[in-house]
Amino acid sequence: MQYKGIIFDFNGTLFFDSKKHLEAWREYSRIIRGEAFTDDEMREHMFGRTNEDIIAYAIQKRPTPEMVEKYGQEKEALYREMCKKDPENFHLAPGAVDFLNFLTKQNIPRTIATMSDKKNVDFYIESFNLAKWFEIDKIVYSDGTIKGKPAPDIYEIAAKKLNLSPKDCIVVEDALAGIEAANSAGIGKIIAIASMDSKEIYKNIQCVSQIITNFNEIDRNLFAQFANIKN
User: Is 115 helix (H, G, I), strand (E, B) or coil?
Assistant: First the structure.
């Protein structure tokens, strides 16, 4: 089957930063509840979720808006500093630049759907020159109105931004909550990228059709427009 467009998660997908987020949230979990999040907690309750959801899990009740703002912004500022202080790892995922260049050259519809907030999205746009490959106004991010993954909303909105049906889109995700969100949204093909965890984590997820570690592993012939050009 061929597809008309592609939607990328960002954190842990186009940018392998899951360990940075883990370190920053672990630091803040000590403030919030007096102990660090475990790896299992991060995987199950943090990746792909909104800051509000993460804080709610940590304190076991819905946080006040003031608490969400304070903890969230302080944690994200710490995370951005960690990124800048580690230039060796502050780059897009393996194979991502070549793949994005291919999508751009072939004019294949594409966007990003991330639960990061605007400050982080602006940070990524500037740091990675994302405007080279993406229409900035089509990037979907957490603006306080979108339900966090695993709700399907963010992928439904992203497909709509591309003027495509979800079934005609590919999604690339690393988070289990994000994979569930994409599946619930009716995405046609879900590709899991093992950026931090072993491929084994994704092998028994029925809706995942491919597991990659490098964007060069994605078959370019999956895209109808490219196939039509070749033919």
Answer: coil
